[in-house]
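Format notes (please read before filing issues)

Several people have asked whether sequences and structure tokens are stored in separate files. They are not. Every record keeps both together, in the order shown below: the sequence lines, then the token lines. Line labels are part of the format and must not be stripped during preprocessing.
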Amino acid sequence: MTTPAAQLPASATENGSAVIRVLSYNIRSMRDDNAALARVIRACEPDLVLVQEAPRFFRWRKAAARLAAATDLVILSGGATAAGPMLLCSLRATVERTEDVLLPLTPGLHRRGFATAVVRIGGARIGVLSAHLSLQAAERYEQAGALLDRIAGMGAEHVIAGGDLNERPGGRSFTRLAGALQDCWEAAPWGGGPTFTPKDPHQRIDAIFATHGVEVLGCGVPLGLAAPADLTAATDHLPVLAALRVPTG
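Then the structure lines:
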């Protein structure tokens, strides 16, 4: 049974922990209804947004800046410099460091990468990673391993990773990630599950993961927060929103 949308906790600073909202969203290079996209993001009230398929080509920085301005967020890292993944954050986040990571290029396939950062929110120190894994199964499995290696090397006890996995639960790459991290939807399902396609959602190929020690308060597609018309118009994926309690200190 999923948690009703109204019960998803809001961001808060507590004694010994911080409650944060994290959104993962494939925005298809902003080729769809950008006003609807901004409304969806604003409705979710995220502290962190893990973007996939951010603009990567002509004037990509200006397009990313427009999205950040329209959602009252700031660009944290990524974009073309990470081959598509990008991180946005609210002013609640204090940035410690950022790094864009390009993964090995397989001839004939798209270049992939990670957008990463370490931030502090409400006293909690958090590693963050946005990823968009390959359509090709063998390359995707190697990229899942690289994601886990990157998390292990971030020097942060608590890490949140998310993105477009191009694979359903039970696949080798999804299973590799879920075996080492918490699949937030499985830990505390809320809202909707399937993320693709918006008009006929039947595949859960987008996910948010967290290291053990982060408490998952709810995670899923924000069906009760964002307008249905905006969810179908904004892009070709549905977003995933998680409320997480991260210990401080």
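For reference, the curators noted about this record: DSSP finds six helices and 13 strands in the chain. Residues 137-152 form the longest helix (16 residues).
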